[in-house]
Amino acid sequence: MTAETSQTLDRGLRVLKLLADTDHGLTVTELSNKLGVNRTVVYRLLATLEQHALVRRDLGGRARVGLGVLRLGRQVHPLVREAALPALRSLAEDIGATAHLTLVDGTEALAVAVVEPTWTDYHVAYRAGFRHPLDRGAAGKAILAARHKARDDPGYTLTHGELEAGASGAAAPLLGVTGVEGSVGVVMLADAVPERVGARVMDAAREVAEALR
User: Fold this and answer.
1) Which of 184, 181, 189 is nearest to 157 (CA)?
2) Residues 61-119: pLDDT tens digits?
3) HTH iclR-type domain spans which residues (predicted)?
4) What is the pTM for the complete model shown?
5) Fewer CB in 10 Å around end: N or C, the chain?
6) What is the C-alpha to C-alpha distance for residues 98 and 104, in angstroms, rounded to an integer?
7) Rounded distance between C-alpha atoms, residue 153 and residue 167, angstroms
8) What gap in Å lies between CA 113 and CA 133, rounded to an integer?
9) Using an 8 Å Cβ cutoff, are 173 and 80 in contact?
10) From residue 20, how far is each of 13, 15, 191 by CA, in Å?
11) Rounded Cα–Cα distance for residues 116 and 35 (Å)
């Protein structure tokens, strides 16, 4: 550290780097130990970074990189959508349902890319920018399931009527993408999701994850 540098800024940037290197977030205590500073300093750093949406804390109190990091670079968010679109188009056409990429934004799920099928007579209207609680809908529940993965977890989540009456959803989480929590899924007007859809959204989620690495 030299006279020309800021210790607080340096610590804040180190916090962001530490959070970007983990898929599961870090607690205040873990950050305190890694930075070699007391918990009060960490709380202040996180509070400041949260104000700028660069960091978010989940319901369990673990700090994670926030979507504000993506907004710092104007081209980053479009690039995320662009990287996901081929897999989403293939998924939408194959299943005949609206496909989407959803990312975590605070305590909400945010649809950042949506592709509707071209050959169906009708489908669910689902728009980029749509938000909903993480604990409602297949997209959010798939993300929560990935945080607490159980042995009997099939790798995808199915829901019915949680966000729109008569609509069913299927989603699988993005895995192995550092600093990004999200899911890929479909939503359709049906009483139940066909059996093959679960495996298909898992394949699409893997394709999107590979494109984002």
Assistant:
1) 184
2) 899 988 787 666 555 567 788 899 999 999 999 999 999 999 988 789 999 999 999 99
3) 6-67
4) 0.69
5) N
6) 19
7) 23
8) 17
9) no
10) 11, 9, 39
11) 46
